[in-house]
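Researcher: Re-running this chain for the archive, since the previous output was lost when a drive failed. Same request as before.
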Amino acid sequence: MIPATSAPSYPKVTIAVPLYRSAPFLSIVTETLQSQDYPNLEFLISDRHLDDDTIERLQDTFSPDPRFRFLIARDQLDWVAHYNLLLTVASGSYFVWMSHDDSYSSDFVRKLVEALERNPDAILAYARVERITMSGERLTKITPKIPDPSWRPGPVNAYRIALSGGLQFHGVFRRKWLLDRKLWIRPTIHNIAADMLWLFALATIGRTLYVENCTYWKRYHERNTYKTWSSIMRPRYVWSFARVVRSYLADYVPSLFQRVLAICISYLACALWSVRLTLRRNR
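Model: Regenerated structure tokens:
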């Protein structure tokens, strides 16, 4: 069990775990939460469908620990609404969405928070990413290759981040910065790529950091969400992506010229991303 200690010099970090039919990944969730060595944590464990008993089993394990909060409802929230809710009800200065089927090194939170504390202008810090199978076999490393360990805010880097596959989404964010700007994840058709488009909006106006000396392990298996993303090359999907991009630009990019230019580029970027995802899906 993680030591239930808190240090005033360490800002609180909320780790939010949105569950959905998570029973096959129960041991992964448990081990990852137990492994984090950061001394000031809040854990939000939430299930909005209750299609299995995962949250009850996690309650049995962690309920004596006062840092854990369990949110249970049958309101059938989709994943976008669920993620936005967790951001709202958290209490930490920093925030991370933790996927139920992925793993994080024990120093993941600590090192990302340390990087953000050293760089007060940065909004997000994310770790080295490694792809693995359910059995732990290592696949190729897919951390975006960048010449500098930071992404400066602006449309060019925002498109690069969106097209890189959205890996920065699994990082640590400054929660108040997101709330102050009401930067919520916005839905697309079937909520496909909503996380990547949200990252695009964030990177348009905020700086991100790449921290190489900690690791996020992304598991690839038959239940991965992207496996269900069929026919994404249909025009209505690309149009949906571009519509959401336009809405973010209208709210967060003040220059009319930049918005018009970015809108034109967004259609091309969405099409290129769709092609890339299709090729990856067919591997």
